[in-house]
Amino acid sequence: MKTIVYKSESRGKANHGWLQSFHSFSFANYYNPDRMNFGALRVLNDDYVAPGMGFSKHPHNNMEIVSIPLEGELKHQDSMNNTTLIKSGEVQIMSAGTGVFHSEMNNSHKEAVKFLQIWVMPEKQNITPEYDQQVFDIKGRKNEFQTVVSPKKSGDKGVKINQRAWFTRIDLDENLEKTYTLHDSKNGVYMFLLEGKLEIAGFSLEKRDAIGVIDTDMIDIKALANSSLLLMEVPMTF
Fold it and tell me: In terms of domains, do 122 and 26 share one?
């Protein structure tokens, strides 16, 4: 097993007033040659969007874009004629493929929205753009692994991604221990701690810390406090 720890305070930060964003990997004006990606995981932005503000229509292509709201609601519109609200407890994916335009706006004029914007490099280039969005029962991740993203044609639960990748959430009670078993031992797992305190592979992680793990079939996780964790299992070569 090989590991690398990413402390919360080591992330890049952008403050645009209406948008505050923490970048786990190089993005926009934040560039760190040692933080380009973790395998197929290219972007993990931890975003805060002020009331009534958001991202106006802009293009993407050949990228798998996953949005996970943590608080509030995002209003999404795209060139595939989708107009939807994305709320906490839901997960959205756009397979941008040959190209798509979309906008994401805070649906509230009173409350901020907080969400994760995640980009995964695709398995196949230039596919027809696709969209998926699902609601997940919060109770389903209470001390259990809940799959929220899985590969197309895998038969697993979750929104479908054009890559051999699985995203999993779990909310752990203090002192509980769980073992995550990889779907593919050639993959790596990037674990991002949303809340709480965990011990993983001998390392103590606190809120918004992360750890990348490769060269293993399974990973032991111990909750040192009530905790919420996002696991992103992705190919390291593709």
Answer: yes
> What is the pTM (predicted TM-score) of this model?
0.97
Contact of 235 with 29, CB cutoff 8 Å: no
**Which domain-ending residue is among 71, 102, 135?**
135
pLDDT of residue 213: 98
Tokens describing residue 93: 């994916």
Residue-level pLDDT at 153: 86
The helix (run of H) or strand (run of E) holding residue 46 is strand 41-49
Q: How far apart are CA 150 and CA 185, in angstroms?
A: 16
Domain of 216, in residue numbers: 138-235
pLDDT at 28: 94
Judge if 61 and 83 occupy the same domain. Answer: yes
Which long-range CB contacts under 8 A does 157-161 form with residues at least 24 apart?
A: 158/91, 158/134, 159/66, 159/91, 159/92, 159/93, 159/132, 159/133, 159/134, 160/93, 160/130, 160/132, 161/64, 161/66, 161/93, 161/95, 161/120
Residues 22 and 110 occupy one common structural domain: yes
Query: pLDDT averaged over consecutive 10-residue blocks of the chain (238 residues)?
Result: 97 96 97 97 98 94 98 96 95 97 95 97 97 96 98 93 98 98 97 98 96 97 98 94
